[in-house]
Amino acid sequence: MNLKVTIAGVEWKNPVTTASGTFGSGAEYSEFVDLNKLGAVTTKGVANVPWPGNPTPRIAETYGGMLNAIGLQNPGVDVFVKRDIPMLRQYDTNIIVNVCGKTTEDYIAVVERLANEDVDMLEINISCPNVKEGGIAFGQDPKAVEAITAEVKKYAKQPVIMKLSPNVTSIVEMAKAAEAGGADALSMINTLTGMKIDIKKRCFALANKTGGMSGPAVKPVAVRMVYQTAQAVKIPIIGMGGICTAEDALEFIMAGATAVSVGTANFYQPDATIKVAEGIEAYMKEYGIEDINSLIGCVK
Fold it and tell me: Cys-Cys link to 2, which of 78, 196, 204, 291 (CB 3.0-4.6 A)?
């Protein structure tokens, strides 16, 4: 039975990775999860300089999910290279580095810094606010999506995965723009913008007022967006958004995703990724499916 998938020339032992920001850089989960059993580990966002993140409170529980406004807090690429890459390299898994920035130059600085490092793929978080354009996210304007993809590709030595924001009118338009810019793959979806109000305190539950909504409640939206995008582009998709079980993951795969990313579920079930990977294998055994690739996009 074959669980291997290949994305942009990189072979994964199975189609399961971790969603950026939900798994740190793997160290804190390594006592609960055998990282050797994952197709890849996707790190928390890495910027060219340390980012302090947003003021607290910055997490709130919601019905069927959660809101977060962490603000991409991270120690910067130099610490990441020195501390996190050697830790992850102890394991037999692919390393996907999530890259964030506030300007095109910020992204390029990280991509250049990682060019000769032992990492396998780069995931570019274009849901970051573009400070030069007054704070609109790079991923909300197709011209900006194509431009930043093309710029990153000029400097990247590893395959480039563009992580798409769902907070747009047409996800397909953004996916096509990333493909036109030379993206090797797509990650989708990032969080949906949401808000929660504490009626007892009569104030916002998050200091940032709004946050990114993730968890099971977003899954039907994410599956729909993956399906639509898979019909429109030729590059592989890593699907995510509310995946908690193997059944959830298989929906994304059947909708057209080559691999899947588990996020919010890690917070309440640290070994969720392993359970998803094992569940996919069990499903294939039960239904006599020899190759996971035969399930990708099988629902038309």
Answer: 291
